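re the bet — no i am not wrong, look at it urself. input seq straight from the record:
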Amino acid sequence: MKKKYSIFHIEGGLGKHIMATAVAQCIKNNYPDRELIVVSAYPEIFLNIDFIDKVYRIGSTPYFYQDYIKGKDSFIFRNEPYFTTDYINQTSHLIESWCNLFQLKYNGESPQLVFNRAQELEATNFWNRDKPIMVIQTNGGPLTQDSINSWTRDMPPLISNEIVQLYNKDYHIMQVTRDNTFHIPGVEVITNVPSSMMFLSLLKFSQKRLLIDSSLQHAAKAFDLKSTVLWIGNSPSTLGYDFHDNIIANLPSNIKLPDSYMDKYHIHGSPHECPIKEEVIFNKEEIISSIENQ
């Protein structure tokens, strides 16, 4: 019998790849008789998932055309979900918009992350600490990001400092950030780890989590670890999960957006578009209440 394939190509950041695991599941659910081949920037995210047959890194695809395209029965799933009408108009979550783009029947598929035994043991040793771990992600984006701060998603230092002062006695606090950003005094700063899977595994060893609109909130959903997530520029209705406590910033209502095109805000936060004049944009008591209930 001639083999049939579904080929799923993903570009973008780590958080997008975690969301893509839900889309991969939807592809497999819609076409269960086809082998699922994934080509991505973060192949390690997909390697341990049982329903995915093969994984390739973008740019490392030897003989791919001969093996999967030329004369083969292959469906190609390679489109950009951030450009869809549903996502831009914020009428559905990015995962659902992505599935709609491929004309798939979406049945609520959710992100998943699977670790093998070796990864579990390595992570257990790597993240072993004397006190319960609390993770605070203050900054997102790639380590090579040019801008020091993105006002559209990075956590205000006032909030992070106050939370640390409140929990530092009972918890070993780890700040996830980049090298070129503000580092909270008195905590362990996590700017780089050996691998993406090791980085994400930090959540599995945490008891408290205060996150932002970035990869860790997607991973927390995949691990079924309820977290407190702060939102400034983007919306949890399109990029978040009701599973978390999503706390939305209080921004001015009359905001000028001279350079905004298809998105309300650029994810890196153009400084001249920043409408924030006061440092207090979140309700601290609401944040503390959410953390206490994790």
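see?? The CA atoms of residues 81 and 98 lie 5 Å apart. told u. also The chain is about 30% helix and 15% strand. so pay up
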